[in-house]
Design brief:
The complex is a heterodimer. Chain A contains 6 helices and 9 strands; from the N terminus they run βββαββαβαααβαββ. Chain A is α/β, with parallel strands linked by helices. Chain A has one domain: Rossmann fold. In chain A, helix 6 links the parallel strand 7 and strand 8. By secondary structure, chain B is of the alpha+beta class. Chain B has 2 domains: about 160 residues, no CATH class; about 80 residues, 2-Layer Sandwich (Alpha-Beta Plaits). Helix content of chain B is about 55%, strand content about 10%. Chain B has 10 helices and 5 strands, in the order E-H-H-H-E-H-E-E-H-E-H-H-H-H-H. The two termini of chain B are about 30 Å apart. The interface between A and B is large, with 68 and 48 residues. Strand 9 of chain A pairs antiparallel with strand 1 of chain B, so a sheet runs across the interface.
């Protein structure tokens, strides 16, 4: 689960978060909508421990991001699957090699890696591109590879930061179906987007949509963790 | 302050049916002209036309059975289960991929320059040795028994101002005469050399001492010059190599940075990042070093002979400069380690 409590973060001279409180329970499915510069990507970077909060607490699966030592960050990131808006792939490797990397990093056995990779290639329809070098793929296929790589190791949290840019409807459907399947397996899914219109008819029925706006002087709503759902 | 707007909590039911994925299409179809006649329109036929005109993108997709193909996943290259052999194989195969292949070729061509300089420096070493070898006095001996001659040679060799002696027969006007080549130390000046020559001339076994004191003095200068040239060429080779390897490493940085970023994002630790990068850099340096040195050696060995080989044959290299290659590779490894240490801090 993800718990933010009175989070404050300043980037440069701009205050991104002044008092943000949010609770996403385990296996929740959340669409976090917001306009540009509302702090969506900053939040994602903080969840992956690329940045730390200035004040407040940010807890991811029981780990306090503010105080995690640098040596433990890789272990945290192995529990999280990320689909970035611009996929970051191993350019001189094939699709198959890219997708298998998270399993290798997690230390899975070779037969498990082989089985899961083949299953995912079948599901996503990437069978014909298995040995294609990633640098030669189209943008939509690269994003699909990124999505497959994010879920193959069955992480506890899957974060998708505006994942449907530069993809067509079919690929969007495939990507969201991977997220739906991950959520049904118990992963906490968080998707950030500027507008949920494209997503709402694709995501699972239990998905909730929240809007993040910057600059408002209203107090935040506080989500009580013991209720197990958003207030 | 940031807010989370609860009032806009939406579910699937809040959207109008037209935006829902599987809502039935709304079509209006005019009856075909053939059907327009005086008799009432047959609704059944209209329904049939509507069904036939269903757009392709609303028709259910055809289920193309996909063949179950099992793809073989290569042995892990990252992570704790990554084996050294599989990583080495991957590094070797990566040298033959397009960018590293070009990088290796450029590096080899660039390294051939310092390799050439390094080979020439070994030639200066040979020149120095030859100059030292030519620094000698020829002592012509009077006929005498072998014991006395060998005793004289031993006495001279034991002298601290004499570095070596060599006894050899010389054919002098069809007459065999024994001669002793005496190599005086580099530190002796003209006065000391004159003293030694006089001492030798006074020996009963010595018939004549042939020595060119002027040449002996200039010989010292020539040896010093050869040593300076050797040192300068080694420094030049080292500098060239450092600059070339540094420039090529920097040119490969964007690709390496991208790879590191992807691996870091997936949770690779520092150790997992450094090992394959280091292996790849070392292999690249080794391949380029061997190729560059070979190119240099072949080019020098095929230079046209502008002067008599008998005089200058010792200047051209004859042996494979293993030391040059080792120094180039070591420098490449050093630059690789520095690169990895610089890039290893990517978050």
């Amino acid at each position: 689960m993800i718990h933010l409590h009175e989070l404050q973060k300043t980037v440069g001279n701009r205050c991104v978060f002044s008092d943000l409180t949010l609770f996403l329970p385990k296996a929740s499915y959340t669409l976090l909508c917001g306009e540009r510069h509302s702090g969506k990507t900053t939040l994602v970077r903080m969840l992956l421990a690329y940045e730390r909060p200035d004040k407040g607490t940010l807890t991811v699966d029981g780990i306090d991001i503010g105080s995690i030592p640098d040596s433990r960050i890789p272990y945290l990131r192995r529990q999280i699957g990320l689909i970035a808006d611009t996929p970051v792939l191993l350019e001189d490797r094939s699709v198959l090699e890219n997708i298998a990397v998270p399993l290798q990093l997690a230390g899975f056995e070779q037969d498990v890696i082989s089985q899961r990779t083949n299953e995912l290639l079948q599901t996503t329809g990437l069978n014909n591109e298995t040995n294609t070098q990633v640098s030669k793929l189209t943008d939509k296929t690269r994003q699909l590879v990124s999505a497959a790589r994010a879920v193959i190791h069955k992480p506890t949290i899957v974060i998708a930061d505006e994942p449907l840019q530069n993809v067509d409807k079919e690929t969007a459907g495939l990507i969201v179906s991977l997220l739906n399947e991950a959520n049904s397996s118990g992963a906490t899914v968080l998707i950030t987007c500027q507008s949920d219109a494209q997503l709402l008819h694709l995501v699972s029925t239990n998905a909730k949509s929240l809007v993040l706006t910057a600059g408002s002087d209203r107090n935040n709503e506080y989500f009580k963790p013991e209720s197990g759902k958003n207030a | 302050m940031n807010t989370l707007n609860l009032s806009r909590e939406k579910t699937r039911n809040d959207y109008p049916p037209s935006l829902i994925k599987h809502a039935p299409p709304v079509l209006s179809v005019a009856p075909a002209p053939a059907l327009v006649d005086q008799s009432p329109i047959d609704q059944t036929l209209v329904d049939q036309v509507v069904a036939d005109q269903t757009p392709a993108d609303q028709a259910p997709p055809k289920q193309v059975p996909q063949e179950q193909v099992e793809h073989s996943v290569p042995m892990p290259l990252y992570g704790e289960k990554a084996g050294l052999i599989s990583q080495l194989k991957d590094c070797i195969s990566s040298l033959f991929r397009k960018p590293p292949k070009v990088t290796a070729l450029i590096l080899a061509l660039a390294l051939s320059i310092p390799a050439t300089i390094a080979i020439l420096s070994s030639s200066f070493t040979s020149a120095e040795e030859n100059l030292l070898d030519s620094r000698h006095l020829t002592v012509f001996l009077a006929p005498g028994n072998d014991n006395e001659v060998s005793q004289l040679a031993k006495t001279l060799a034991a002298n601290k101002y004499i570095t070596a002696t060599e006894l050899r027969p010389i054919d002098l006007q069809n007459k065999e005469v024994m001669a002793l080549d005496v190599h005086p130390a580099m530190t002796l000046d003209k006065t000391q050399l004159s003293f030694i020559i006089n001492e030798l001339n006074s020996h009963t076994l010595v018939d004549y001492v042939a020595a060119d004191l002027t040449w002996l003095e200039r010989n010292v200068e020539a040896v010093e010059a050869a040593r300076k040239l050797r040192l300068a060429s080694m420094i030049a080779a080292g500098l060239f190599t450092s600059i070339i390897v540094f420039l090529l490493t920097c040119s490969d940085l964007p690709r390496q940075h991208s790879e590191l970023r992807a691996l870091t994002q997936m949770g690779a630790s520092q150790k997992m990042l450094q090992k394959p990068l280091l292996l790849r850099s070392m292999l690249l340096a080794l391949a380029a070093g061997i190729t560059g040195t070979l190119l240099a050696w072949i080019s020098i060995a095929n230079l046209p002979n502008l002067v008599e080989m008998s005089t200058y044959e010792q200047i051209l290299p004859r042996s494979f400069p293993a030391a040059s290659m080792v120094s180039i590779v070591l420098l490449g490894i050093f630059c690789s380690i520095m690169t990895v240490r610089l890039l290893g801090k990517v978050r």
